[in-house]
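TICKET: design request
STATUS: open
ATTACHED STRUCTURE:
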């Protein structure tokens, strides 16, 4: 009786979630692996106000272990999840930025399966907001090749990190200079350079929005991430996610739907997806919202399916 009462009060019926009785057999308030794997994630006939893509990082364990190969990402995304747009992570082909033969294979695999390449997330190329000018300018130089690679792959964007240590305003000035250089280069290729809230100062949305205002280049923007608003762990300090999203959306050229663990009703236990998606809609954003599953309770495939289902339900519930 208590379980039936909970489901009724939650506002999500078993049929509405597309779940079987497997979801009810769990003793904990967590979405089960078997229930998540049965989710269909079907886009409604009337569509959604945004499109859905898959961030490669959602499958990082499979790529690191060799279960999946970078060249198979587009096909796997389409066949396993019914998603036709992908976001790459440079770590999985870090030595191929200038290898046009390899990049051509990536393009061909995507084209063969009707998948569009959206962006490349760039890591491990140096700190773009470092106060050491020599290392910072080297980091800028390191990113140029990825803008070229994005152009070759028919992506529209690269995601970079505005990392740096030091006084707040000094780090901001360093970031502005680096992003200005990169966005000028990107403009020549028609490629956006976007910054994700990704720890440190960048997770302070007011700081990052201030950097965007100073760069003032149409090819420079943000990639707001639903879950990356932790500015420091010791001491723990977190920016308000809803307020942060509102501050970053005016500059958004992509959105990252970070998800972790789900309750039995299919809601993320730490992120208010309906509220986040409502903000995205309020800014009239109609681009791709990328699934980035980082949970531990479900497998990568199940977590991706659960996140897609939640995105669809949240999109349908918009006012």
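STATUS: resolved
RESOLUTION: sequence designed for all positions
ATTACHED SEQUENCE:
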């Amino acid at each position: 009786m208590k379980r039936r009462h909970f489901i009724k009060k939650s506002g999500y019926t078993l049929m509405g979630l597309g779940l079987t009785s497997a979801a009810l057999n769990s003793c904990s308030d967590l979405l089960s692996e078997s229930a998540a794997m049965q989710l269909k994630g079907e886009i409604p006939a009337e569509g959604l106000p945004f499109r859905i893509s898959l961030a490669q990082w959602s499958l990082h364990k499979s790529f690191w272990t060799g279960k999946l190969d970078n060249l198979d990402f587009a096909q796997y995304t389409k066949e396993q999840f019914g998603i036709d747009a992908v976001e790459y992570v440079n770590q999985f082909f870090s030595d191929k930025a200038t290898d046009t033969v390899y990049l051509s294979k990536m393009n061909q695999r995507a084209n063969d399966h009707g998948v569009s390449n959206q962006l490349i997330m760039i890591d491990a190329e140096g700190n773009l907001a470092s106060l050491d000018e020599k290392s910072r300018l080297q980091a800028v130089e390191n990113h140029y090749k990825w803008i070229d690679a994005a152009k070759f792959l028919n992506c529209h964007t690269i995601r970079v990190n505005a990392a740096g240590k030091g006084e707040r305003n000094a780090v901001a000035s360093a970031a502005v200079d680096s992003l200005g250089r990169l966005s000028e280069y990107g403009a020549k290729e028609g490629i956006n350079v976007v910054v994700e809230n990704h720890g440190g100062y960048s997770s302070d949305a007011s700081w990052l929005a201030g950097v965007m205002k100073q760069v003032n280049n149409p090819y420079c923007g943000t990639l707001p991430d639903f879950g990356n608003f932790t500015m420091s762990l010791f001491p723990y300090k977190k920016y308000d996610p809803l307020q942060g999203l509102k501050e970053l959306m005016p500059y958004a050229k992509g959105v990252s739907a970070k998800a972790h663990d789900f309750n039995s009703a299919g809601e993320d236990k730490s992120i208010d997806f309906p509220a986040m998606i409502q903000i995205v809609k309020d800014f009239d954003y109609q681009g791709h919202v990328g699934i980035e599953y980082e949970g531990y309770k479900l497998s990568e495939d199940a977590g991706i399916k659960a996140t897609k289902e939640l995105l669809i339900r949240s999109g349908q519930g918009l006012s």
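CLOSING REMARK: Strands lie at 51-55, 85-89, 116-121, 157-160, 192-196, 220-223, 230-233, 236-238, 255-259, 288-293. Confidence is low (pLDDT under 50) at residues 1-27.
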